[in-house]
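thread: overnight batch results

M.L. [08:02]
morning all. the overnight job finished for the chain we discussed friday. pasting input first so we're all looking at the same thing
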Amino acid sequence: MIDEIDISQVAEDILGAARRSTSEEDFKIRAVKIFGKIFETWNVPWDEGKYEYTLVSGIRADALYGHVVIEYEKPG
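M.L. [08:03]
and the structure it wrote out:
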């Protein structure tokens, strides 16, 4: 069973991280900490994430955690 996650709190945390970030990389670093907590509850190997990963389709993802793909954008 997957633990419940307060998505409104996650959204607030992500917005806060974006406000404090000045670049995409800065935001990525802050967001990984937020997502890491969630991934742990889902048993997704977030600490073994792959960054700037090219998928079979040829699309380049900013981050890949197990089967979770994340595309980061510069805040603002």
